[in-house]
Structures are given as C-alpha cells and as structure tokens.
Write a structure and sequence with these properties.
The chain has 24 helices and 20 strands. It is of the alpha/beta class. The strands form seven sheets. Strands 7-6-5-12-13 form a five-stranded parallel β-sheet, with helices on both faces. A four-stranded antiparallel β-sheet has the order 8-9-10-11, sandwiched between helices.
C-alpha cells in the first residue's frame, strides 16, 4: 500500500548522518556511573541531510530516495548500442555518464552492483545497412558497370532520392496544416520538429547532389575513368545504396552478411568504450543468442491472452493489456489512459522495415513482439512462422533472464523513453504478471551540436574516434562531469575548452603540492604557522568534502561536485600566493589526496599514486634509457653555456653573452626538458620542477605554438589592413588639388580647379560648385600634409609603404605554409 511504501521510506537505512550544529538533551543513565553526554542533533530536514541517495526516476518525473529491492544489491540494466555503424559522441555521452554513475554507486556508496549491457545485433537498421553495404560491394566489383553506366545509375538514384525527399516534405507540411486546423499543439510541435530535421537532411542531399554532378561531368582516359568511377561511387554511395536496396535488397538472404556487419561494429563499439576508459559490464548479452528464449517469452504472453498472431507476426494487445489492470506509457504519458500514440511515434516503434501497417493490428498502437521476415531479412523458425524478434522484446528477455523479474535500475538515452522503454515495460509486465518490472528508470539528456540533436540520420555527428583524435579520454570525461547527466547539453569548442581549462587547473595544483611534499617538511616547523589563513583553508577543505558528498547524494550531481573540488583548489592556490607563505604541507597534501580520490572514483585518474594524474612517460621499462636522456640533456646544456662563456672571455660582447645564456636556459625549459618529461616553472621564489608525460607536454607545446601562430597571423592581418589603407591614403593624397576634377565630365574650370561648365556646355550648379570647392580644400590640406611628411618626395614614401605591405604578405604566406 501507499502507507507501507511511505513507512518503508521513512525507516530505510541511512547512508550517513549530518549534524545541525546543535546538541540534543543529555543522556543520563542512572544505573551507570557516567556523567551526562550531549549527543549532536541530527539534521532531518531533507533526504540528503539524512544521508539518502536521491535518483531522478523517469517513472515519476522527479527525484526519489533510492532503495534497492534486496539489501544493498543493485541489479542494473543499460540498453547497449544497435551495432550498425560507428558510435558517435552522443553515444559517448550516454555510456560515460552511466559509467560515472556506476563508479560512484560502487566505489563511493559501496553498493553491490550487477551491471548488464545488451548488444542489439539484429534490427531494421542493421539489416538495411548490411544489405546496402553488400550491394555496394557487389557493384564495386561489377566490371560491366563502367564509369558511364555508373553516371546513369547515380543520376537515376539522385532523382529518386530527391523525389522521395519532396514527397516527405509535402507529407510533413500537410500534417502540420492538419494539426493547426485541429488545434492539436502536441502533433504540431512533433511535426515541426520532423520538418526541421527533414530540412537538414535535404540540405545534406543537395550537398551530395553538387558533388555527384561535378564528378559525373568528369571524363578522360580509361585509367582516369577508373579513378573517377571510384570517386563517384564514394560520393553517390548513399543514394545508390538506397536505390539498389529497393530493387535488389530482397535477394540478400545469407545470415552471415548481417552477422559479420554486426560483429564488426560491436567490436568497434567495445574498443571505443575501452579507449574512453569505460568499465566493461559485468554481463554482456546479444539478441541473436537469445532467439529461443525470446520465442518462449512471446508464447507466454500469448498464453495469457495479452498478445495475438497476425500474418506471421505477433503483436501485444494494448486493449487486453490495459483491461488486465496494467498501465501503458509510464515513462512518456500522453493522452487519457496514457495510450495516445501518434503516427510518427508508431513509425519510430516499428522501425524502417515496419510490418504490414495497421491493417493487421487490432489497435493501431499495438506493437510487434515478433516480426514476420520479408525477403531480404534474416529469419528464424518459430511457432508463429519464420521471423525475427521485435525491437523491444530483446531487452525484456535478456534483462529478465540475467537480472530477474525485479530490476532496480534500467538506463538508456532520452530518445529511448518512448516507444522502446515503454514497450519494454509493457511486454515484461505482461509476461511476468507484475505491475512494476523496473523500480528506477534513468535517461541521459540529448547531446546537441549546432542546435540539433547529434544524429547519424542528420549527418551532424562526430565519431568517438574522431573526437579522440583531438581530445583525450580524460578531457571528454571531464566535459561530461561538468554537465547534469539527465539534462540536454551542447557539444562545442566552448564545452571542450572548459574541460581542458579545468584539467589544467587540477594539474597545476597537483604540481604545486608535489613540489612541496618533495622537501623534508619534518626538518621545519610542522604546525599551522599562517594563523587564520590555515583555519580558512581547513574550513574550505571540510566544506568541499561536505558539498561533494551532498552533491553525489543529490542525483549524482557531478557538476556541483566538480565545482566544489575546483573551489577548494582555488582557495589553496590563493593560500599559496600569500606573502611570506609558510604552508601547512600536510593540509595541502590532504586536499590533493582527497581531490585525487574523488577524481579516481569519477574515472578521471587511474593508477596508484597518492595524488595527481601520475608522472613520467608511461613506459615502465624505460628507466635506464630515461637516465641516459637526462645525462645527454645535462651535457648538452653545459656545452652550450660553456661556449657562450668562452666567446665572452675571448673579447666578445658580454651583454650578448648574458642574453645568449638566458636564451639557452629558456630553451632548456621550453624545448629540451619537455622531451624527457620534465616540467620547469620559474617562480619569484625559485624554479619548481615536476615529472610529466613527454607526450602530454609535447601536445601542450604544439597547442601553445599553434595559438601563438594564430595570434601572430591575426596581428599581421590587422597590420596588413592598416598598411594597405595607408598606401591608399598616400595615393589619394598625391593628386594635386587643382587636378581633382579635370576630367572628361567637365569642359571649363576656374583658376583653383573648381569645374564651372559641364562637357555638354551646361553650367555647373552653384550647389555642386560649392561641394567641389569644399573637396578641393580638403585635398589641398591632405596634399600639403603629404608633402611635408615626405619631404616633397611622396613617391618614395609610397614605395616604402608598399614595401611594408609586401613584407607583411610574405610573412603571412610563410606562416600559412
């Protein structure tokens, strides 16, 4: 009952308690001979103060206290990828977010988690992509289709794609008009979103058309045609693949084609997860290995009268399901009874190769548990006829088999709420005969790029591998830690740069503390010697720990937790910059160690170092060669300094020798030592050194050089504009004032050069003469100023200015190269 549920929440075990700063009444035991004890007052104002973990539950739309069904065991299922193509940063957002939450759940809150991920290795998208790739492969090898025939094929495919696009646009526009007339705001918003996506897709198609038509026009020798054919096939692959699939897709029946395609992208996905530092699941399942269990699952639902066969497919009957007392659309309620499903939503639920439409359904909203296979689709024998699993059934079966009939947490991306997860719930509750199969549903927010959801269909995605070419896995993880996991976020240069700057802040602080603890602090006073400053820093440290704890209890709020870590680091940096600072090394070490512990829990840091990101070049076997590198560096540095001193001793310029020594020292810091993994930082109090990964330092130096180059180019471009304007000004000022208007437009002028008569004999109006006189006066001043500035030699001044322009252009050209 509701009362019992509430009662359980009131008395569920607490993770930890918080105090109010006050005392309770004293405890006095008459039987014991002890004095009164005043217990601290427990804060009970909210669940977080009581130490309860709150989790945003999509089933209720709000944060709920998290209570596992059994003891501290957490059975957690996450929808894995549909392995039809490379994973993109949107997928990384989802799986990194859940990896962080899982790490916090296990390593911070110490729950016993069993974590399962499923790979969808048979699905409409996989079937289509595998078929299309196979047909393109066959076309590539078909020598009978030469360049000219491929041109014809590409143009036909392009025409069909454009016609299909036009038809789609017309359908959406009609749907928007109907929704407007019916005052259906939900349908109107839905269709307007589809139109926005369609326009992006059409823009992409128009871009493809330009490339295709350009390549179709190229023709030359047979050898050149071979190259042109290959290029055209790449450019037109998308439209040709769709055309070939419509015409020949039904001929691809070999299961190995679909299986090989799925295995390729499944392996790539798992490699991507490893590259991102995501922990492997405790259990990994595949749909194709569960077909017998899926068939049995469907049969159970049919036996209960909640599903029916139709034309070789099997559908869940929503009418029967709801009549049996179940609820539908728990995650994304819409309409009375929560069963109002739009045509667009149904199309999403049935997939690109959807079945026989609504004609074979009892209710248009009924969804497929088993799909009758059409020609060109893989098929398994079943009591319902040859077919394949529906999209949603797989997760119910694999999760039910591994985690059972009661799952604590089920996770996935925002776009899976409906229809996928709602349909999962319906069929699972139908099979198991329960009202709640999953207790907590968590969904990550969309990842947007340039205002639109990152999506393969919109071709606005960046693959995980592309992202890792420009950023480290640590930087991507920090980027997601700085966002709320359940809210939309933008992927942009700004969000990446923010992550990099936060990483740099952590690194800088760790280097500071590393340098301090390297010294023998026991040889000095060890107490707090900075009075209030030490107390202030200690308070900041304790406050950071409290904020991190409360933030993690509050729906895994890593954004505020990271802010708390960065805030205490900023306090520590301020403390270290105090005049005549006598730092408390142990307190700073405690802060660095705590920050490291939390970053380890978040997956930002690996390794066993007490604090910091780790040091050295990463090659554990390079100790001896590293020693040789340091010796070579020292010898080279000594030789350079010695040569500079010898040159000065032989009567050279002593100032130049000093400058040379300083340059050699800077080069040692900026160019030489980074190659052997040593970072030097010059400070007013002396030089601080740290060991660092040479690759990281090389990348930092390359980025710094690139920024300096960019700044130099920008500066030169501004100089160029200024110098070109100067040249133009000199040229204009070189015109003698009396000659300004001596053109074919006029016939007569007065003694100062003001035109009086037009070329056709008409007099120049008084107003025009005044304007011309004013312009001549202005030119007179400019001409006079130029003569004074140039010493009556304006041509020499112009030549010098033009020489500057040419010099700047030359510098810009060399920098561009």
């Amino acid at each position: 009952t509701h009362t019992q549920h509430h009662h359980q929440h009131q008395h569920c075990p607490t993770m930890s308690l918080s105090g109010t700063g006050n005392f309770c009444q004293p405890i006095c035991e008459d039987s014991s001979h002890r004095h009164p004890w005043y217990p601290p007052e427990i804060a009970t104002t909210d669940p977080i103060a009581r130490g309860q973990l709150l989790l945003r539950n999509t089933l209720t739309g709000k944060k709920e206290p998290f209570v596992p069904m059994q003891a501290r065991h957490v059975r957690w299922y996450t929808c894995g990828p549909t392995v039809y193509d490379s994973s993109h940063v949107g997928h990384a957002r989802t799986y990194l977010s859940f990896d962080i939450m899982r790490r916090v759940m296990t390593d911070y809150f110490h729950y016993n988690v069993l974590y399962q991920i499923n790979t969808t290795d048979i699905d409409d998208k996989i079937i289509l992509r595998a078929r299309q790739n196979e047909l393109i492969r066959q076309l590539e090898l078909d020598t009978s289709v030469d360049f000219d025939k491929l041109v014809i094929l590409a143009k036909e495919a392009l025409g069909e794609a454009k016609a299909k696009s036009d038809q789609k646009k017309e359908e959406i526009a009609t749907a928007i008009e109907e929704a407007t007339q019916n005052k259906d705001s939900r349908a109107k918003t839905e269709q307007e979103g589809l139109m926005e996506q369609h326009l992006v897709k059409r823009k992409n198609l128009d871009g493809d058309e330009a490339k295709i038509m350009e390549l179709c026009g190229s023709s030359s020798s047979s050898s050149a045609n071979k190259d042109a054919r290959a290029k055209l096939l790449v450019a037109a692959k998308s439209v040709i693949a769709e055309k070939l699939d419509r015409e020949k897709g039904h001929l691809i029946t070999d299961h190995s084609v679909f299986n090989a395609h799925a295995r390729q992208y499944e392996r790539e996905f798992m490699e991507d997860m490893t590259a991102l530092g995501i922990r492997e699941p405790d259990v990994l399942t595949r749909v194709t290995e569960y077909v017998p269990q899926i068939i049995a699952f469907v049969e159970t639902i049919i036996e209960k009268g909640l599903a029916y066969k139709s034309n070789g497919s099997v559908y869940l009957s929503l009418d029967s399901f709801q009549a049996a007392g179940h609820n539908y659309r728990k995650l994304n309620p819409a309409g009375p009874g929560g069963a109002a499903t739009s045509a667009a939503e149904m199309a999403e639920g049935e997939g690109a190769l959807g079945g026989g439409g609504t004609s074979e359904k009892r209710n248009p909203s009924d969804f497929a548990l088993w799909k009758a296979s059409k020609p060109g689709e893989p098929a398994w024998e079943s009591p319902f006829g040859p077919g394949r699993p529906g999209w949603h059934i797989e997760c119910s079966v694999v999760a039910g088999d591994i985690l059972g009939e009661r799952i604590d947490i089920h996770s996935g991306g925002e776009d899976l709420k409906f229809p996928h997860h709602d349909n999962e719930l319906a069929q699972s509750e139908a099979c198991f005969g329960c009202n709640q199969w999953v207790n907590y549903f968590t969904h990550t927010g969309h990842l947007h790029i340039q205002g639109l959801k990152m999506s393969k269909s919109l071709k606005n995605f960046i693959t995980i591998r592309q992202a890792l070419e420009h950023n480290t896995a640590r930087q991507l993880r920090i980027m997601f830690l700085l966002q709320a996991w359940d809210q939309p976020m933008n992927y942009s240069d700004q969000t990446i740069d923010d992550a990099r700057s936060k990483e740099a802040a952590f690194k800088s602080f760790f280097r500071e503390v590393e340098a301090l603890v390297r010294d023998d602090y026991l040889a000095q006073e060890v107490g707090w010697r900075m009075a209030d400053h030490d107390h202030k820093l200690a308070d900041a440290y304790l406050a950071a720990r409290q904020t991190v704890h409360e933030s993690l209890l509050d729906n895994f709020n890593t954004k505020d937790a990271m802010s708390a870590l960065l805030k205490v680091i900023n306090e520590a940096n301020t403390y270290l910059r105090l005049p005549q600072v006598r730092p408390s090394v142990l307190l700073l070490r405690a802060i660095a160690t705590y920050v490291t512990q939390i970053l380890k829990i978040f997956g930002v840091i690996d390794g066993e170092d007490e604090f910091g990101f780790g040091s050295g070049g990463g090659d554990a076997n390079a100790t001896s060669s590293g020693g040789e590198q340091y010796i070579e560096t020292l010898v080279s540095f000594r030789e350079s300094i010695r040569n500079a001193a010898l040159d000065a001793a032989k009567g050279g310029d002593s100032k130049a020798a000093i400058q040379s020594v300083l340059q050699i020292c800077d080069a040692l810091r900026d160019e030489v030592l980074p190659k052997v993994g040593v970072r030097l930082e010059d400070r007013p109090t002396g030089t601080m050194w740290n060991l660092e990964d040479p690759e990281v330092m090389a990348k930092e130096l390359a980025e710094k050089a690139a920024k300096e180059k960019e700044a130099q180019i920008s500066k030169l471009e501004k100089q160029l504009i200024a110098r070109e304007k100067e040249c133009e000004k000199i040229k204009n000022s070189m015109v003698k004032p009396e000659d300004m208007f001596r053109t074919n437009e006029f016939k007569e002028w007065d003694e100062s050069g003001v035109p009086t008569t037009l070329a056709n004999g008409d007099p120049v109006s008084g107003g025009q003469m005044k304007k011309k006189k004013k312009a001549i006066d202005k030119q007179s001043k400019a001409f006079k100023d130029l003569m004074e500035k140039s010493g009556n030699n304006p041509q020499e001044l112009l030549s010098a200015a033009q020489k500057e322009v040419d010099g700047i252009k030359e510098k810009l050209s060399s920098l561009s190269l």
